[in-house]
Amino acid sequence: MINSLQSLRGIFAILIFLSHYAIGPDGHRVFYAGGTMGVEFFIVLSGFVMCAGYEKKVDSHSISYRDFMTRRLIRIYPLHLFCLATWMLCTSTFKPLHADIVVPNLLLLQSWFPDHKVFYGCNTPSWCLSVFLFLYAVFPLLSRFYASSKSLFTRIFTLWWIAFFIFIIVLPDDLEGDYTLWLTRIAPPVRLLDFVIGIMLWHLYVRLRDASFAHRLQSMSPLAKTLLEILPLVLYVVASFAFEELTNKWRSAALWWLPTISCVMVYALMDRKGGALSWLFGRRWLVAFGNASFCFYLMHVPVISVVARGIRHFGYDPDAWTLFWISLVVAIVASMVVSRWIDDPVGRWLRRRLLRH
């Protein structure tokens, strides 16, 4: 496990929290760009991590497709059902539930529907699980394709990335409905581009890690290493300012490709031998929260709703920022408790019973 990247999971999960938390009656978000930024990081990192954990097993056929997908479903589905049930309990008391929204969310098919009432319906963050399920399903095919023909794999996806940019250019700014958002950020085949970036980053990382390049990086002065670690953060800041100025179609995942690529590569290569930021991201408490970041990601929207309604039920009406901090703390604590005492034990129990030994 690369501690820096694990800690960054938690930090990006909090950025997603900021994108969903509305301050004031106008619905202004604390940090709206944090949502697309965080999701991009998670998808790219997922391709990177899938290669680290499963590439050799998949390419050598030492793990069956059934067992691979069973492991992936065990990882995402129990917590998804828990959060979906929580959302339904919180929602059913003040508005009706509709099967045409709940069923696609239950089956993790919501991201295939170009309608925000479906893909953002129910527990909003779960739309990304629908994307992940698709990416996991095609990962063995992608991995074996890369292993059999690296040059062809690279050419095909380079053309796909170019085609995606051309598509954004020609896409009308005034496209009706949710199609702009769906076609540039939500549809699972579009997010395959980000996932493949993660796969290719893993192979680049392995080459650099095993070469003298990584040693030279780690041998730099502490100040030089820290400045290098700051570079991806600067790129994220620049992209965040651009995000606020761009039209919806340009707020696609492509805006975050360069910052995310640099972030994953720099912190992976600097792990345990980097500068001040690598030292910070290696702290046990940050790594522990990074381990619980998946729970935090899926739970934070129901937590925001429960906290707000619970406090007001007892006659309190705190200002928006007080409620924000309470919600954030409760979400962090709840996610770590659920991760350790519910999600992890349930996952172990299911693996013992469903996987072949």
What does this structure look like?
There is one protein chain. The chain has helices at 3-20, 33-59, 65-91, 99-106, 116-119, 127-148, 150-170, 179-186, 188-209, 212-218, 222-245, 257-269, 276-281, 284-291, 293-313, 320-354; strands at 22-23, 28-29. The model has no long low-confidence stretch (mean pLDDT 92). It has one domain (3-354). It contains 16 helices and two strands. A hairpin with a 4-residue loop joins strand 1 and strand 2 (28-29). It is 76% helix and 1% strand. It is mainly α and 357 residues long. Helix 6 (127-148) crosses helix 7 and helix 9 runs parallel beside helix 12 (257-269). The chain is globular, with a radius of gyration of 21 Å. The longest helix is centred in the last third of the chain and has 35 residues, at 320-354. Strands 1-2 form a two-stranded antiparallel sheet.
Poorly predicted ranges (pLDDT <50, ≥5 residues)?
Answer: none
Largest beta sheet: strand ordering = 1-2
- What count of helical segments does DSSP give? 16
- By DSSP, the count of extended strands is 2
Strand content: under 5%
Q: Estimate the helix proportion, in percent.
A: over 70%
Q: How many domains comprise the coordinates?
A: 1
What is the CA–CA distance across the termini?
24 Å
Structural class: mainly alpha
Biggest beta sheet attributes = 2 strands, antiparallel
Mean pLDDT rating: 92
Calculate Rg over CA atoms.
21 Å
